[in-house]
Amino acid sequence: MEWKSHSERQIYTDKWVNLSLADVQQPDGSRCEYTIVRLRHLAVAAVINDRQEVLMMWRHRFVTDTWAWELPMGLVEDGETPEEAAGREALEETGWRPGPVKPLIYAEPANGITDAQHHVFRADGATYVGPPTEKNESDRIEWIPLSEVRGMIDRREIVSSGSLVGLLYLLMDEATR
Known about the structure:
The protein is 21% helix and 44% strand. By secondary structure, it is an alpha+beta fold. The longest helix is centred in the last third of the chain and has 15 residues, at 161-175.
């Protein structure tokens, strides 16, 4: 049961988001106008130290008016690979330069309305370089024991999908080792 797109027109664009209307034909043959949110790709860094702690940031998200812990993450810039973006974001947002990053998991959150791609990477180890250069990202930066992550998720202290996907995969990976 495949949908067919006949055309798409952009109705809004800025540096963060592109909003389009698509003329689509549904599997039953009916046609409709469908709204699509096109976003730049996101890179997420799950940095783990030798004490089985993960590098996280406590931050406020004004859109949902929530405070929560998040992994370092940000948009993939033009000409940059997702791997490069994950390392850059970790350094800018935390002041820690991660060890080599390797793919952990890929996700498409809300793929019924957006083409957003979340590229989550794991880095084993990090070197402290200095205070974060991104001054508006977080109130606190801490190494959180992986053993505490499940409880934090249950208490809604971690709610961002990029963080949740990466952390849950890390926990599954650790459980099978």
